[in-house]
Design brief:
mainly alpha; 14 helices
Length: 305
Amino acid sequence: MRIFVCVALLLAMAPLGLPLFAMTLLTEALILGLLAMSLDLMVGYTRLISFGHAAAYGLGAYASGYLLLHTSLPLPFAVLAASVLAGVVAIGVAWVCTLAKGVSFSMLTLAFAQLLYAVAFKWTSVTGASDGLAGIPRTAGPFGVTVFQTKNGYYYLVLVCLLGAYLFCRSLVGSPFGAVLRGIRENEAKTLSLGYNTRLYKIAVVAVSFALGGLAGALYSPFAGFANTELVFWLFSGQVLIMVIVGGQGTLIGPILGAAFFMLLEHVLSQYTESWALFFGLIFIGFVMFAPQGIWGLLTRRARA
C-alpha cells in the first residue's frame, strides 16, 4: 500500500513538471493500462485467454462518443453508462463463450469481436461506419463543472478511474471470489468438484473485465475526440494481450507497466523506422523466452535480491 500511495502521489504531481505533449502520452498510457489490467482478470487470474478484448474497448468508446454527441449527459455519467453497457453486453457474450474451453473459448471471443467490428463498419447512422465518430466533445461535468474540459483536468479523471479500478481489482482478487478464480486457473475440475459453479464465476469475471475495458474505451473517445473501427479490430486485441504478458500476467500492476512500455517503445521506434512492430516482436519473443514473469517479475526479483 505504501508503494501504491507513492506512485499515486507521483502521478498526481506529473502535470506540475511535464510538458503538454508528455501529459498527452501519459494520459493515453494510463487509459491503455486500465484496459490491460482489465484483461489480466481473465488471463492472469482465471486463465481465460481472450483474443477479442478490443470489443470491450471499442464498445465503450462508441457508446460514450455517441452519448456525448447526441445527449446532454455530463461527461462522467456518459463514461459510466458506457462502462455499464459493456459489462451488460459481456454477460451474453460470456454465456456463449463459456460453453467452450481453451482454444475454442479464445476463438469465440475473437468471433464476437469481429462481429462487433462488422456492426461498427456497417451501422452508419450510429457508428459512422468507416469514418467513425468525429468531434466527440468533453462536455461539462455535473453542476456545470468545466475542469474535465482541460487537459490536466481530464488527466486527473483518468488517473482517478485507473487508481479506483486498481483498488477494486485488488480487493476482488484478494476476496473469496478471487480465490475461486485462482482455483479455476489451477484446476477447474477440482474447483467444480468442491461445489463451485465455475461457469457462473467465469461469466462474472468476463463481465467485470469487459466493464473495466469499456471504461477505458469510454475514457479514450473524449480524450482523442473520435472513435473508429480500429478500436475493435482483432490486431488491437493482440496488442493488449501482449501488454499483459510483457508486463506480467496475474499481477494487475504488471499489465499497466506493460501498456506504458508498449506505448513508449512504439513512440520511440516509430520515429526511426516504419517496421517498429518487427523490433517489438523480437522484444516480445525475448520476454517470453527469458523473462516469462514480465517487467513486474523482473522488478520484484531485483528488489528481493
